[in-house]
Each structure stands twice: as structure tokens, then as C-alpha cells.
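Minutes, project check-in
Item: structure for the 117-residue chain
Input as provided by the requester:
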Amino acid sequence: MKNNFEITNCPVRNVLDRFGDKWSILLLMILDDAEKLRFNELNKAIPDISQKMLTVTLRTLEADGFVKRTIYPEVPPRVEYAITPLGKSLMTHINGLAGWAVNHMEEIEASRKLVLA
């Protein structure tokens, strides 16, 4: 692969920019483990996320095609979220990165202590 990353229209930068936030990868991991979840179930799964940030992150993931939102015409309305096939195809890479992070966290923390001391 060439390292010819354009400043604009770079697919790598474009995709990584979407996952550089605090919540997107975590939400995809949670949805990957479940068949489908309601908004409140997602909110309980990540207690430190605000409802607004959860909504914004889910909308972004939906806009990119990683999450599907289904609204059921009930009273009160029921909304469920599920990972899409596109989102599933990304999970191999996310799980690889998560595994790498777990395996190297002690080394990273030790390095941070040296540099920040």
C-alpha cells in the first residue's frame, strides 16, 4: 500500500476520523455482542455517556452504515439498534486493535510514566 495520503479525500483519514472519538468503537463492540439493543440498554451499558452524546454517536454510526436503527410504531415508540454487515466486517479489525491494546497496556503505561515523570 502506498503512503500517498491526500490531505483531502483520504479514505484512511476519513474513516479513522470517525472512530477517533471516545464512544464509537465501544458502541460497535457492545452492539456486536448483542443481536439488538434499545437506546436505554445502550445507555446502561455505558454509564458515563450522556444521552446527547449517545444519540450523536449512534446517528454518526448510522449515517456511515455501521448501525441500523429500527423504529417500531408503538406507544411509546420502541427504537432498536443493531450492527450492520458493514459494521460486522469492521469488527475483526476493531477486535484485533482491542486485543493489541490489552496485550501492550502495561508497556504503554510504563513508557508514559517515564516520559511524564
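Outcome recorded: The beta strands are 37-38, 67-72, 78-83.
No further action items on this chain.
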